[in-house]
Design a protein that fits this description.
heterodimer; A: Rossmann fold; 8-stranded mixed sheet; two-stranded antiparallel sheet; 17% strand; B: Rossmann fold; 4 domains; 7-stranded mixed sheet; 20% strand; binds thiamine diphosphate; binds iron/sulfur cluster; binds magnesium ion
Chain lengths: 320, 636
């Protein structure tokens, strides 16, 4: 039976501030799941802690609201143990790039087949607007006592450098485009990263919806109606097509260079995509040949309450 | 006459001390003896002093003694550090080329040890050299057996026409072991077999080592024939294993169906993971091969996060760590607690805090484990006393976590994990697997993961189960798992979760909670790996017609108050024995039983307890000569 979009919505009251960019992201995730017709019990949303962390409660699939900064660890464990699940991890920029930055880098190296979405609002929303790792040096959002003293982290660049094999950016008010990106990310074979520009109308008075729309830059805005443009519109080709160093270097470096664009022209779309690298689960088959057919969650361990793992030979080897 | 001797081998880390000890232990075990070996080492890869003390007896033993019967050394440091442990009538086999070595020649002798040693030697008017130390040993009644290890290599090189052997000082360990076998008049065949075993992948090296072994063995039998002790062999107990401490938990995990273990390397816990990874593929009766996914993570936070993620899929999942890593796991333990996720953490304690004594023993983390994480939630803290027990306990811990839907912290320690012992073959047929209310099928489409039930435990779905969708959150939640801050719902959910503490104390069989080895006027309470040395000390006292009771606590949280109270009602004097400074068990004991502990026998040197020192302290207590806190010091 085909599921409808409404099947993916819970009736949990959503307490985000009016106008928050998070609404667009949740809608896009629900639409992507519905369009892909993923059974509700075969999908799980893992989320971190922050305003963004509540996401898992609004989507009617398994929803695991974890710990601040640790969402990737929980999600990877679940995916490794049960590879049949479609897993989307979601969390704030503070969650993923501040307290969780170590896990971000380690996850890239592992390349577990799942999707990770960062709600990039430049602030720590839920703790009332402190600077997040993506806020630029010297910027002073509403609740900061003084301008930001740290240089910003570049999420796209960090993802590319860490080994994520699908790296993209979306915009929370372009829901249709975002939905398509989420679908592409889920379909991607490997760890997909999505940096979603998410205005926080309550605390980030710099990167607002109007700012992204280019309202302040009259002349430019006349031409484009937005600071944001799509990589696909300029014919940007993100995919690594063959496993050669020159090809890889070209695709990695163009992604890095694109990731540095900010200010009056902000690219969204897919920066980098490489499916020629083996996924973590497949790497495990080097030592456990049937790992993918018989992963941890599928294994029988007992029969009538008795163990069925036979360790006789092992014990024999220790017998004197 | 019964056999009970201790053999000690020492040398710089990386020089094959462990291999030497493994060969010796194996040979003894194959000859039918019971073996208890303990490894001590620095946090260092090459050069610092390490040693292995192997006790060999023709009856069941559970610990080491203070006295060494035979010491074999191929470096000066071992002699300086251990000469005093060799008993009168015992033997020292040593490298005669070392006789002129001074304490200052050994850079790894720390200053404070050196000044203690110098004082000892000064008092006896001896020079600060190996000769000085050896003279002292001789005056103590120790038999000295000097051997030039280099000479043995030269002769071997001549005999075999292989001049390269002259420089093969890596074989000093095998030479030392073989000399010991000759001295103790042990038959050499198991020695050769053991060497073949250990070097089975390198036949050439095996061959050279066998030549060296043969040569040294013959040397010793020809020359050392005045020694009083021997190991002629004894009747072998059928189905005896020779295992290292981490194998109980590791094999337990395989048997009881743990299929996911994430970890970050740390001594003394990683050995277990390495072993599990080496034996990743599992033979399953009546099914295709199974496997354990062993995932090395970026840190312990990730290790516990991944294991929780895996546990949510219905997979039996675990991690193992030591104090520093456990500290990093604290936040997530609370998450698992509030979300009622069954997980098992095998906690191999060492001496902390921080890096503390990283490769040494301690039972410092009991209260930390009990109080780990923030907020209030039910958990189980459970401790194993020896290797054999740890196999069955591991399986039980998984059952407890599944049945009660709580995190279980299984306390182990460095003394347990680095001892090598003979024990009865583990019997998987004694193991049961109880997954509690884990669901395999859900028909109704209004599933509530945290539904209120009579016993306070809700049927548990898992990721991927049809109709089984649920939510988790660290916040308080409603029956579906969605966030709730409703005050009344908070009370209901808290009461539901916390009611499990009572249920645990009620449902876990009493004999799995506390083990009584008898209760007398003087009765010991203890937990964890002190069990072995206590049992042996009590045995020694029994021979003098002194009966002391012993009650071993295994379930430490929730505390088995009522059962302990009933067990201990006739004990007049309570003696608490632990490897820590603050007598942590006594604190919870006092809190729960409103009863004071009368004496403490404590050790926090980082070295495990010997039965000798427990015996000595107990004697003092009985004779009313002890201080309230008896602090043990034995061991280099
Ligand atoms: C270990 C820990 N430290 C601090 C907090 C407090 N805290 C809650 S949300 C949050 C920041 C959220 O910012 P971000 O991740 O950017 O998410 P947003 O609210 O912006 O969506 C912090 C620091 C916490 N929950 N846990
Ligand atoms: S604080 Fe910002 S991010 Fe959080 S809900 Fe409000 S608008 Fe959204
Ligand atoms: Mg944020």
């Amino acid at each position: 039976m085909a599921l409808k979009l409404s099947d993916y919505k819970t009736d949990v009251h959503n307490d985000w501030c009016p106008g928050c960019g998070d609404f667009g992201i949740v809608n896009a995730i629900q639409m992507a799941l519905a369009e892909m017709n993923i059974p509700r019990d075969k999908a799980a949303i893992f989320s971190g802690i922050g305003c963004s962390g509540k996401t898992s409660h609004f989507i009617n699939v398994y929803g695991i609201h974890t710990l601040h900064g640790r969402v990737l660890t929980f999600a990877q464990g679940a995916k490794i143990a049960n590879p049949d699940m479609t897993i989307v991890a979601a969390g704030g920029d503070g969650d993923g790039l501040g307290i969780g930055a170590g896990h971000f880098v380690a996850a890239g190296r592992r390349d577990v087949n799942m999707t990770y979405i960062i709600f990039d609002n430049g602030v720590y929303g839920l703790t009332k607007g402190q600077a997040s790792p993506t806020l630029k040096l010297g910027e002073q959002t509403k609740s900061l006592a003084s301008p930001n003293t740290n240089y910003d982290v570049n999420p796209i660049g960090l993802a590319v450098a860490s080994g994520f094999t699908f790296v993209a950016r979306g915009y929370s008010y372009d829901i249709k485009h975002l939905k398509d990106l989420i679908k592409a990310a889920i379909q991607h074979k490997g760890l997909a990263f999505l940096d979603v520009l998410q205005p926080c109308p309550t605390y980030n008075d710099i990167n607002t919806r109007d700012w992204y729309a280019g309202v302040d830059m009259v002349e430019e805005a006349q031409k484009r109606h937005s600071r944001i443009y799509k990589l696909e519109d300029i014919g940007f080709e993100p995919t690594v097509h063959f496993n050669e160093e020159s090809e890889l270097n070209e695709k990695l470096s163009q992604a890095l260079i694109k990731s540095l664009e900010w200010g009056n022209k902000i690219p969204i779309g897919i920066f980098y995509k490489n499916e020629l690298i083996s996924r973590y689960g497949e790497r495990l088959t080097d030592t456990i040949p049937n790992f993918l057919e018989n992963p941890p969650a599928k294994q029988r361990i007992s029969s009538n309450g008795k163990p069925i793992t036979n360790v006789s030979k092992l014990l024999d080897s220790f017998e004197v | 006459m019964s056999t009970d001797i201790t053999w000690l081998i020492g040398g710089p880390q990386g020089s094959g001390v462990e291999t030497g000890a493994n060969i010796f232990s194996r040979v003894c075990a194959e000859m039918g003896y019971q073996v208890f070996g303990k490894r001590e080492f620095y946090s260092n890869i090459k050069g610092e002093h390490s040693y292995f003390a192997v006790r060999v007896a023709d009856k069941k033993i559970h610990s080491n003694l203070n006295d060494v019967t035979v010491m074999v050394s191929f470096d000066a440091e071992t002699i300086f550090r251990h000469y005093n442990e060799v008993m009168s009538g015992g033997a020292m086999i040593y490298d005669s080329d070392l006789e002129n070595t001074t304490t200052d020649d050994v850079p790894t002798l720390n200053q404070i040890f050196k000044s203690r040693l110098h004082k000892e030697l000064e008092a006896k008017n001896k020079p600060f050299t190996i000769s000085g130390v050896l003279e002292t040993a001789k005056e103590n009644g120790v038999n000295l057996y000097p051997v030039s290890f280099r000479d043995i290599l030269s002769k071997l090189a001549d005999e075999t026409g292989n001049p390269k052997l002259k420089a093969l000082i890596r074989m000093f360990n095998v030479i030392g072991v073989s000399l010991s076998l000759g001295l103790l008049k042990m038959p050499p065949d198991s020695l050769f077999k053991s060497i073949e075993n250990i070097f089975s992948k390198k036949p050439k090296i095996a061959e050279i080592n066998k030549q060296a072994a043969n040569h040294s063995y013959n040397f010793a039998t020809a020359k050392f024939n005045d020694f009083n002790y021997s190991l002629p062999g004894t009747k072998k107990e059928p189905h005896t294993l020779l295992v290292q401490g981490h194998l109980g938990a590791a094999i337990g995990k395989m048997v009881c169906g743990c299929r996911f273990q994430s970890y970050y390397p740390i001594t003394p816990a990683s050995d277990e993971c390495v072993f599990l990874e080496q034996h990743q593929i599992l033979e399953i009766d009546g099914d295709r091969p199974g496997s354990t996914a062993i995932i090395q993570t970026e840190d312990e936070i990730s290790a516990i996060g991944m294991m929780i993620g895996s546990a949510l899929t219905g997979t039996r999942s675990a991690t193992c760590t030591s104090g520093p890593g456990f500290s990093l796991m604290a936040e997530a333990i609370g998450w698992a607690g509030i979300n009622e996720v069954p997980i098992v953490i095998t906690l191999y304690q060492r001496s902390g805090p921080s890096t503390g004594l990283p490769t040494r023993h301690g039972q410092d983390d009991l209260l930390f484990a009990i109080n780990s994480s923030h907020g209030e939630f039910p958990k189980i803290v459970y401790a194993s006393g020896d290797i054999e027990e740890s196999f069955y306990d591991t399986c039980n811990c998984f059952n407890y976590s599944d049945v009660f839907q709580v995190p279980v912290i299984h306390m182990m320690d460095k003394f347990l994990s680095s001892s090598v012992v003979t024990c009865k073959r583990f019997d998987p047929s004694k193991v049961t697997i109880d997954r509690g209310k884990l669901l395999e099928k859900i028909d109704d489409n209004d599933y509530k993961r945290f539904a209120f039930t009579d016993d306070g435990i809700s049927p548990r779905s898992k990721l991927g189960l049809e109709n089984g969708v649920f939510w988790n959150t660290g916040d308080e939640r409603d029956e579906y798992g969605h966030i709730s801050e409703d005050p009344i719902e908070r009370i209901q959910m808290m009461d539901k979760r916390m009611s499990r503490l009572e249920l645990i104390a009620k449902k876990i069989p009493k004999e799995e909670q506390v083990v009584s080895f008898g209760v007398h006027d003087f009765t010991i309470i203890s937990w964890g790996s002190t069990k072995g040395p206590i049992i042996d000390a009590l045995e020694m006292l029994k021979k003098e017609n002194i009966d002391i009771g012993f009650v071993q606590f295994k379930l430490l949280h929730p505390f088995p108050t009522d059962y302990a109270e009933s067990l201990l009602k006739d004990a007049k004097t309570i003696i608490d024995i632990e490897s820590n400074h603050t007598a942590q068990l006594s604190q919870i004991f006092k809190q729960n039983l409103s009863r004071d502990v009368d004496y403490f026998i404590l050790k926090y040197t980082g070295r495990g307890m010997t039965s000798t020192e427990i015996y000595d302290s107990l004697k003092k207590i009985i004779e009313n000569k002890a201080s309230k806190r008896e602090i043990l010091k034995h061991g280099a």
